[in-house]
Amino acid sequence: MKLFDQHTHNAKTIPGAGVVNLPMGVLSEPESFHPTAGQLYSAGIFPLYEGDWDRALENLKKLIQHPQLVALGECGLDKRSNVPFLKQENFFEAQVILADQMKKHLIIHCVRAWRELFVINRLHPTEQRRIVHGFRGKPELACQLIETGFYLSFGPLFNADSLRLCAPERRLIETDDSNLTLMQVNTLQHEAFNIPN
């Protein structure tokens, strides 16, 4: 089975081998977006971003129409952020709606805000993939997310029990912002926990 990097910050990823997350600077200056032929991208307002969120959202609405932008994100909720949480919720919900309207997958960053994520998810049912990226949570949370329809993307750091219980059709793999290759992440997950290839 061919590996696909569901979420990476590595702009040098082989075109078509993964989804490259665009830096927030692109949402400040969308004219700086010069896509590589065949490359797949995602863009969204990161919850720790301390720039102009209104401008970023307006630019995202234009950028998301580009055919090489296959996903919206990473966006989400993070209670460690200096950005007021209500503002995070409002903009995350706007991005959830935008992803659904544009029929794009949603790549979600969530830290200590699972209850709020479940509420927003319930308010906006969808047929599009909603992917919790870099999932490290406990099996109980993994089960809740999977039962609610989320996909889980596992990177170099993960909870072994959660990885084991996640069915292959709901389990994705990513390098995120690590220096590891996708094959190295895959090997870590398989060798450490005896998950069959």
The total tally of domains equals: 1
What string gives the helices and strands in order? EEHEHEHEHEHEHEH
**Tally of contiguous helical segments:** 7
The proportion of residues forming helix, as a percent range, comes to 25-40%
Proportion of residues in β-strands: 15-25%
Q: Overall mean pLDDT score? A: 96
Shape: globular
Strand order of the largest sheet: 1-2-3-4-5-6-7-8
Number of strands: 8
Provide the CATH top-level class: Alpha Beta
Structural class: alpha/beta
Contiguous low-pLDDT stretches (5 residues minimum) are none
Question: What can you tell me about this protein's structure?
Answer:
This protein has about 200 residues and is an alpha/beta fold. It has one domain (about 5-195): TIM Barrel (Alpha-Beta Barrel). It has seven helices and eight strands. Strands 1-2-3-4-5-6-7-8 form an eight-stranded parallel sheet.
Task: Compose a concise summary of this entry.
About 35% of the residues lie in helices and about 20% in strands.
